[in-house]
Write a structure and sequence with these properties.
By secondary structure, the chain is an alpha/beta fold. Helix content is 34%, strand content 19%. Bound molecules: S-adenosyl-L-homocysteine and iron/sulfur cluster. The site of iron/sulfur cluster (SF4) has 10 residues, from helix 4.
C-alpha cells in the first residue's frame, strides 16, 4: 500500500483520513496546525505527538516537501528558489525585498500554455498544472528557510503559469493560504492574463484576494498579437468581467502593463488606457519590458516610461513604475523558466 501524503489532502480529506485511521477527531486540528503553521517537514517532526503515534502514523502516511535545487541571490537582494517536484518537474518562486515588505512570487503551473510573446515562461509551453499543495508549499518552503526576523509579508501569484487555467487547484491553494496558513486576503494578489469567465467564477468560489490583470495593450489588434488569449476574450469582454468583480472597501484592481518599445508605449496608448479603465477603481503598474535571449521586443528608455506615467497621473490615475528586480539572476517578471527534466 502506498503511503498517503498528508500535505496533498484538503481539510475535509484530512478529517476523513483521521476518522478512517481510528484517531480521535482533534488530531485533524493538530495536524493542520503542524503542517501549515509550524511547517513540520515530516511526521516525526510533529513533536506534540507521542513517539508511538508518530511511528504508527509514519507507516501509513508522510508529509511531502519541495526539494530546493538552487537558490541564487541577486545583487539587489532578490532571491530565486528553484524547486523540484515529486515527478522531477521544476518550478520557481521569487522572494522580493522592498522597504518594509517581503513579497513571495509563486508559480501556479510548471510552464504556461498562454503563449504571450513577451514572456519567457510562455515560450517554454505548459509542462503541467501544479497541485494545490505544490502551490501552497512554495510559501511553506521559503518561509521555513528564512531566518528571523525575516518573514514573508505578501504573496503574489505572478510566477510561472496562468492561475485561472489551473482553476480548481489554485482556488484550493488560496483557501489553504487564508484558512490554514492564516494569511490575510489583503496580502494575496492573483494575476491573470484575462480568462474572463474564470474571473467571475473566482469571485464566487475563492477567498476575496486582490486581483491583477495583465492588460499590456490598449487595442485588440496589438493585444491579439502580444497575448493570444485576447482572441478569445477581447479587451471589452475582459474589462466587463473586471467591472463585475466585487471589490471590498478600499480595494482596487491592479492592471499590469508591460511597456514594449514602439508597440504599446505611445502617448496615444496612454490616452486609450485612461478611457478603457474609466470607472474601474484601479492601480496601474507599468513594467518596462525585461529582456531575455531571443526576445523580439525592446525595453523603452526611461524618459518614454516616465512620459507614459505622467499622462496617466495627470488624468488622476494611480500609476507606478515597477522596478524590475532580480534581472541578473533571471528572476524578474517574465524571465522565469526553470529547468525541466530530460
Ligand atoms: N500568467 C499570469 C501570472 C504571471 S504574472 C499573468 O500573466 O498575469 C507575470 C507578469 O509579468 C504579467 O503581468 C506579465 O505581463 C509580466 N511579464 C511577462 N513577461 C514580461 C517581461 N518580459 N518583462 C516584463 N514583464 C513581463
Ligand atoms: Fe503565461 Fe502570464 Fe507569461 Fe502570459 S505572461 S505566458 S499568461 S505566465
Amino acid at each position: 500500500m502506498s503511503k498517503i501524503n498528508l500535505k496533498a489532502l484538503s481539510k475535509q480529506e484530512l478529517e476523513a483520513f483521521v476518522l478512517n485511521s481510528g484517531m480521535p477527531a482533534f488530531r485533524t486540528k493538530q495536524l493542520l496546525h503542524w503542517i501549515y503553521e509550524k511547517h513540520a517537514r515530516s511526521i516525526q517532526g510533529i513533536t506534540e505527538f507521542s513517539k508511538d503515534l508518530r511511528d504508527k502514523l509514519s507507516q501509513i502516511a508522510y508529509i511531502s516537501n519541495l526539494e530546493l535545487l538552487e537558490r541564487p541571490v541577486s545583487k539587489d537582494g532578490t532571491e530565486k528558489f528553484l524547486f523540484g517536484l515529486e515527478d522531477r518537474e521544476s518550478i520557481e518562486s521569487v522572494l522580493i525585498p522592498d522597504e518594509d515588505r517581503l513579497t513571495l512570487c509563486i508559480s501556479s503551473q510548471a510552464g504556461c500554455a498562454m503563449g504571450c510573446r513577451f514572456c519567457l515562461t510562455g515560450r517554454t509551453g505548459l509542462k503541467r498544472n501544479l497541485k494545490a499543495h505544490e502551490i501552497a508549499d512554495q510559501i511553506i518552503s521559503v518561509d521555513s528557510r528564512l531566518i528571523a526576523p525575516r518573514k514573508i509579508t505578501n504573496i503574489v501569484l505572478m510566477g510561472m503559469g496562468e492561475p485561472l487555467a489551473n482553476f480548481e487547484n489554485v482556488v484550493e491553494a488560496l483557501w489553504r493560504m487564508t484558512g490554514l496558513m492564516k494569511i490575510s486576503t489583503k496580502k494575496i494578489t492573483l494575476s491573470t492574463s484575462g480568462i474572463a469567465p474564470k474571473i467571475r467564477e473566482l469571485a464566487e468560489k475563492a477567498p476575496m484576494v486582490n486581483l491583477a490583470i495583465s492588460l499590456n495593450a490598449t487595442t485588440d489588434a496589438v493585444r491579439d498579437y502580444v497575448m493570444p488569449v485576447n482572441k478569445t476574450y477581447p479587451i471589452a469582454t475582459l474589462l466587463e468581467a473586471c467591472r463585475a468583480f466585487p471589490l471590498a472597501t478600499r480595494r482596487r484592481i491592479y492592471f499590469e502593463y508591460v511597456l514594449l518599445q514602439g508597440i504599446n508605449d505611445t502617448p496615444d496608448d496612454a490616452q486609450r488606457l485612461i478611457k478603457l479603465l474609466k470607472g474601474i477603481p484601479s492601480k496601474v503598474n507599468l513594467i518596462p519590458f525585461n529582456a531575455f535571449e531571443g526576445a523580439e521586443f525592446e525595453r523603452p528608455d526611461g524618459s518614454r516610461v516616465l512620459a507614459f506615467q505622467e499622462i496617466l497621473v495627470n488624468a488622476q490615475m494611480t500609476a507606478f513604475i515597477r522596478k524590475s528586480k532580480g534581472q541578473d539572476i533571471l528572476a524578474a517578471c517574465g524571465q522565469l523558466k526553470a529547468k525541466y527534466k530530460g
